[in-house]
Design goal:
By secondary structure, the chain is α/β, with parallel strands linked by helices. The protein contains 12 helices and 9 strands.
């Protein structure tokens, strides 16, 4: 009889993964973007998202086989693979962040690659043996035509796709590392702390048995647990991939420029039942508000 794969591996198997992830996070061999450059890109993408004349790149392989669609909002949608992300990460590694005017010129001249065959000099990233991974996944996970996907979902998708704050490099021969949750959370914590936007680890409880020490200034298992159910968004955004897997009494956090919201899954289902029942949330796995409703304010922390 075929055994059932456990939903969670035992601690003695997971701890070596955290130890390796910590070593890779701190290794001087890992390409990383300087904090000030990552912040510059975050500011650029905020402007980009709110500039209707600029297109939104959407990583959707199947859609690349037809002309670029236009969203009902008027935004042009450009289907692509991971090439725009490699373009952004390579520029950021070099210490560069274009201006909004420069982005507009690049778009007009086809200067932003949308598929691997167009990478040009940016293909050096792959040739050097690296694979680009994302801390928060960028897959839309929907068969809904792009023109019918909510604009807020598409703008958040652009931010996650192009933001160097959401990127990390792994050796191409170990490409699978970029999909391991434990590795992702340790890298997330390490890079966020380097940028100065991560919460400090919780203070130790007197008399408690400390977790197994790991390399580096943080305790990845504890921090990873704190961060596992948290994500960043440009506005109040509910993500099914985070929320639906929680128990009713488990909390999740949404970090936005307007503040951080925290609630349990039960509170979400009770207060935002309209979101959970919406076709948008069920078909795309996401739902966001362009204007934050008053009922959300009580969840600000």
């Amino acid at each position: 009889m075929l055994p059932t794969c456990p939903s969670r591996l035992p601690t003695e198997l997971r701890e070596p993964i955290f130890a390796f992830a910590s070593a890779w996070a701190a290794s001087p061999l890992r390409p990383r973007v300087k904090p000030e450059v990552a912040h510059a890109w975050d500011a650029l993408l905020h402007e980009w998202i709110h500039t209707p004349a600029l297109p939104l790149f959407v990583r959707k392989d199947a859609a690349r086989r037809r002309p670029a669609p236009t969203h009902p909002s008027g935004r042009t949608l450009v289907p692509c693979d991971n090439s725009p992300a490699i373009w952004a990460f390579t520029l950021a590694l070099e210490g560069n962040c274009p201006t909004l005017t420069e982005v507009a010129a690049l778009v007009a001249n086809g200067g932003i690659p949308v598929e691997l065959t167009q990478l040009g000099r940016f293909g050096a990233f792959y040739k050097a043996g690296w694979k680009l991974a994302h801390l928060d996944g960028v897959g839309l996970r929907t068969r809904t035509p792009l023109e019918e996907v909510p604009l807020d979902t598409l703008t958040e998708h652009l931010r996650l796709l192009l933001s160097p704050s959401n990127h990390f490099a792994v050796p191409k021969v170990w490409a699978g590392l970029g999909e391991i949750p434990e590795v992702i959370e340790v890298i997330r914590t390490c890079d966020a702390q380097a940028r100065g936007d991560a919460p400090r680890p919780a203070a130790p409880v007197p008399g408690a048995v400390p977790p197994m020490p790991t390399p580096g200034p943080t305790q990845p298992r504890r921090v990873a647990a704190l961060r596992a159910n948290s994500y960043r968004a440009t506005r109040l955004l509910f993500r099914a991939d985070v929320i639906d897997g929680l128990a009713d009494d488990q909390s999740f956090r949404i970090e936005t420029p307007d503040g951080t919201y925290e609630m349990t899954r039960a509170e979400f289902l009770r207060t935002f039942s309209n979101v959970a029942a919406s076709n948008t949330y069920r078909s795309t796995g996401q739902y966001s508000y362009s204007t934050t409703p008053a009922k959300a304010r009580r969840f600000l922390v």
